Amino acid sequence: MSVSEFIPSLSRDANASRTSSRSRIVWGALVVVVLGAALWFGWGFLFPPAKRTPPPAGVRTAVAKQQDITVVQHTVGTVVSPDMLQVTAQVTGMLAKANFQEGQLVRKGDPLFEIDARPFEAALAQAQGQLTKDQAVLTGARVDLKRYQTLLGANAISKQTVDDQAATVAQNEGVVQADEALVNTAKINVGYTRIVSPIDGKTGPLMIQPGNVITAASSTPLVTITQVQPIKLSFFLPQSQLTQIQNQMTAGKLWAVVSMPGAPGGQEKAKVDFISNAVGANTGTIELRATFLNADQRLVPGQNVDVGITIKDLPGATVVPRDAVNLGPDTAYVYVVDQDKIVSSKTVKILNDDGVRDAVEGGVKPGDRVVVEGQLRIVPGSKVQIRNRGPASDAGDSSSDMPS
Question: SS3 for 398?
Answer without folding.
Answer: coil
